[in-house]
Amino acid sequence: MISKTKFTASFLILLFLVKSTILALERRTEQFPKDFGYVFLPIPYSLPGAGSGFGLLGGFNNIPFGSTETTTDLFLVGISGDISGVIAGFTDIPIWPETLLLDYFTLNFNKGSFRTYRNRKMDSDPDDYLVSELSDTSLIGGRIILTLFDRMFEIFTIQYDIKNTLSAIRDNEGELLYETDQKFDFTSKSYGSQIDWTDDRIDPLKGARLIYTYADSPSASTDSPDYFVQTYNFTGYIPVGISTLAVNWFRAVATVRKEGNTDLTYLISKEKLQ
């Protein structure tokens, strides 16, 4: 009981200090605009290793529901050609207007690829990696944001459920090492907070912003790694005449609880036995 009381008191004191600090700088514009707008853009593409095709982007800002204005935004991206798929999402859905917001995101593509580095240290070889090719990828998830003091202080949590089918593994020169049809899925979770001590969240002219995130990646199998990543992103905005100078500092720290198995020969032989 005493520990809970201490925690509650500490939280209230911290909240008071944060409020006193951030309200010392006033916002110069409305942080929850509700003016409706939209945009459509063509997306022709030609990417090495991916092919070519055409896509269309559509975005709608502050979608009204009848006569009720909201902060809800919608974006859609459709792509066809050698790579085809759809990306869609809603942002700033007001669960509790101007306090609790929800983002929703979904993605489906017929193919893709990503690099896996054998060593991620500062002195590692940037060419020491493998390329994993995917025959299809789907993702669904979202973010919940608790925002206070005119969006100057926020706490958020993000979760994505991802499903992939691994079709091939290649070396860094594109040579085929192994073909497969292995399906796997996993869940990505992260948590964070943001202090936005600026005169405007979207277009800051002065102030500072600090974003902290914690992303946990527990082991999904006996061969996969178990680790978490913490990131710190600080940006200062300094007025210089009619312009603004932005200075950014970023730090990411990965803590490995258990190393994964990177022996490709062993992993291939194990997959063949399954």
Q: Would you kindly provide a written description of the structure presented here, covering whatever features stand out?
A:
This protein is mainly beta and about 270 residues long. The chain has two domains: about 35-100, no CATH class; about 110-274, no CATH class. Helix content is about 10%, strand content about 60%. The chain contains two helices and twelve strands; from the N terminus they run αββββββββββββα. Strands 1, 2, 3, 4, 5, 6, 7, 8, 9, 10, 11 and 12 form a twelve-stranded antiparallel sheet that branches. The longest helix has 21 residues, at about 1-20. The protein is globular, with a radius of gyration of 23 Å. The relative contact order is 0.10. The mean pLDDT is about 85. It comes from marine metagenome. This is Bacterial surface antigen (D15) domain-containing protein.
